[in-house]
Design the sequence.
């Protein structure tokens, strides 16, 4: 009877180990039940991930043909099986124990019990003298325990599958088939890890919103604007600190996944009229850019041009960047997940070009430039800060900024960054 039972179990294991199916689906919602778009759902132990759609739905699916290479326990401490070798990874010192049981759950041998330091410890199951028999191997790291069935074949090969955990009496008790977790994250929400006990089924997840502050609705400006690009353009302002001194030009269509790069602009003479270059700003926005020009619509006054205080001159543009990045992360914002915060550019006309130069030290800037502006008399240390591509748009030799622009272009050409020059 025992031999018949063992043979049936061997056949069942053999069939089971042909492939492992992963088919997990569900929805990711906020606390009001609304689906969260572009949330990332990961099953890290299997290197699987999916991004939710507009309804918050996701699906993870795979067919893993070999479980001889699997992670039984994952995390900072891990137990894995690779080609018959058990590896125990300790992120910090732990008591490690390896035990062998027969298929009835009786202890055969305690082969390892030691206080292990940080690092990896390996045990070759195939080379053990008991490896000629089907058995269960139980591995413990501190209080965490994982077990798997080991099945030798006549050709010298072997296979294994997740099996059991220990009961309080030292024997083996049936465990759930899976000890794993999903990790779910989305901009503006608290990342959540959900334990799972099966690789098949529906797992719905609710995420709590981060404390990202409140949202202030922008107000449209009664001023028509258009460009040659595919997007209709909206001009608006916002009363929030950081943006309340700027004018926004943006594509009319917003929503998760639009990924509009951010472009900030300094006005000529450093005046603070956000409509000074409205035609150019609308043209840029029509091609899918989120533009903030310094100054409110028809604003007056300006900032003082002073090359010795470039960082202060660039402060307004950097504040617009701060605000845009924060809005992109707020689920309550109209701009939520509409912007590409990895692509940020600054530029400006004449004095506004110095404002753009005042953003060079900001590591978020991915490219910058000047328009009818230059670097005349710039301190050599300024060029040491340049790490990203630079654009010069100049009016020709008759432009009073031309010589300073040429000086800057020639200096930047000597360092290891791309630089582009346009001039009459």
Sequence:
């Amino acid at each position: 009877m025992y031999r018949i039972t063992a043979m049936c179990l061997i056949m069942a294991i053999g069939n089971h180990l042909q492939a492992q199916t992963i088919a997990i689906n569900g929805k990711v919602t906020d606390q009001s039940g609304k689906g969260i778009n572009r949330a990332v759902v990961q099953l890290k132990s299997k290197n699987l991930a999916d991004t939710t759609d507009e309804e918050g739905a996701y699906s993870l699916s795979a067919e893993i043909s070999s479980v001889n290479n699997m992670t039984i326990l994952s995390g900072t401490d891990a137990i894995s099986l690779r080609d018959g070798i058990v590896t125990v990874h300790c992120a910090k010192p732990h008591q490690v124990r390896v035990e062998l049981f027969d298929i009835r759950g009786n202890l055969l041998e305690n082969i390892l019990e030691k206080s292990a330091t940080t690092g990896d410890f390996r045990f070759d199951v195939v080379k053990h003298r008991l490896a000629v028999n089907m058995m269960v191997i139980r591995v413990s790291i501190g209080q965490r325990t994982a077990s798997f069935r080991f099945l030798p074949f006549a050709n010298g090969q072997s296979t294994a599958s997740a099996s059991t955990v220990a009961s309080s009496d030292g024997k083996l008790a049936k465990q759930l088939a899976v000890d794993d977790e999903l990790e779910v994250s989305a901009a503006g929400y608290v990342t959540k890890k959900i334990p799972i006990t099966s690789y098949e089924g529906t797992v719905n997840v609710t995420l709590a919103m981060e404390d990202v502050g409140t949202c202030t609705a922008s107000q449209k400006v009664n001023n028509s604007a258009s460009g040659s690009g595919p997007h209709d353009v909206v001009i608006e302002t916002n009363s929030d600190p950081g943006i309340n001194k700027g004018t926004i030009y943006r594509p009319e269509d917003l929503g998760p996944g639009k990924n509009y790069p951010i472009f900030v602009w300094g006005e000529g003479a450093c005046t603070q009229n956000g409509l000074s270059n409205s035609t150019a700003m609308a043209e840029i926005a029509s091609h899918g850019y989120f533009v903030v020009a310094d100054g409110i619509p028809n604003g007056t006054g300006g900032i003082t041009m002073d090359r010795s205080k470039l960082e202060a001159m660039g402060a307004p543009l950097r504040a617009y960047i701060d605000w845009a990045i924060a809005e992109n992360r707020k689920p309550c914002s109209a701009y939520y997940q509409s912007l590409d915060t990895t692509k940020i550019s600054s530029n400006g006309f004449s004095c506004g070009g110095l404002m753009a130069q005042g953003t060079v030290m900001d590591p978020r800037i991915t490219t910058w430039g000047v328009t009818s502006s230059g670097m005349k008399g710039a301190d050599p240390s300024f060029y040491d800060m340049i790490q990203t591509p630079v654009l010069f748009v100049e009016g020709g030799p008759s432009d009073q900024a031309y010589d300073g622009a040429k000086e800057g272009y020639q200096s930047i050409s000597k360092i290891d960054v791309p630089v582009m020059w346009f001039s009459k």
In short: Confidence is low (pLDDT under 50) at residues 1-19, 163-169. The radius of gyration is 31 Å. The first helix runs from residue 2 to 16.
